[in-house]
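User:
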Amino acid sequence: MKSRTIISKSMHKAIRTRTAFVGNQPAHFDVTKIDVDAAEYSADLTAGKPIKVSVEAAATRTAKDVLQSNKILNAAMFSVSPEKNIIPLRRQFGFVAGESYNRYDLNAEFDEDGIKGKTVWDVLNDATVKDELSKAAAKMFPLKNPLTGQQDVNPSAFYAPLIPIIIATGVLPAQKDGQGYHYFNPEGTVSVGEFLDILNSVKYGSNSASNRRESLDRVSNTDDYFNDGYNECLSGFSSPFYRLYTRKELLAPITRLELAYITVLCWGEFTKKYGSVPSGRYELGINVDWNKPARQLSKFEDGFKYKVFKKCRTVGEHKITSYDVKDYLSGMPMSEFKQAIQQGLRGIPLPMFMSLLELDKLDLFYFENLRLDPMKEVSRGEIAYFAVKLAKTFPLPFVSDGDNSYM
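Assistant: Predicted structure:
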């Protein structure tokens, strides 16, 4: 069992959530409001002692019920073993009906229904299924959110049909108050540490500890719930993620700008698939030309409203644009640098700003009202959408060669 502490700030309060897992199943949630400026906000990052496990959360149970009612989603998300273990999200998007099992009889079941070849993404884009999942999300969280006074989950929200998947997989746990009522809290924010844990959870599952070790920069230790995700982004001493944050800063809400930069230039899976960022004599960028972003920016209402700057290193006869944000911080802590950007005292580093456009190019992030809003704190609703789109864009084989773990 693993417990983790999550900070999710909304309005003038923070919500500290402790979550226990049994296998891959979220089993218990405790939520406590704390003042954002309280000492605890900069304190306990560690998993701490195991907490008492209660019955499985009602919201998680409802999510599983609706997902298991769809044949493709049931096959992709849950193992056929009696335990019905949850399959990691990125592997779910590697599932192809009638082709992915290592057993002929299981594949043949999809021939009879005429749905052979369909994927999870095909199902999620079916209007009827989307409507069913959206209604299920509203049913999972039927109460008014105490922080907003509004219905907790609006079934018409862009992220609504993805909530059952996110909750069932444990990628983003539900929140539960002291009276036992559950909330998704879509307007609540996500901390940097929580985002790192989400990156790890979509690949390995919500209870993974496959990459647990003290980080190379000694910022994260093995007791941190986000330790695996931290190490996924820290590939070596030359990594742009190396000591990018202090431990205290990992508790702060993550902005769109940070989410994009970490995903594109720190998380190894992105450059592994799409290549690194060339410079010098070559075109700068990955999927977008960073030197000529006008076409990409023109679609956004605020696309040309931000001051963006770049720094270069001289290598021989060439000036190489740096994509390591630490070169732009000039020794300033990330928290102070973000504040300086918000106050208009500093521009936005080119690699951070263009990482936002990289996400847009791949349709990974939902920019509501066609606004970049780079310094906006990412909400739980937005992260639910992002996590599913990330899994869809970076799928893993449903069953690896010789691996029958999902049989």
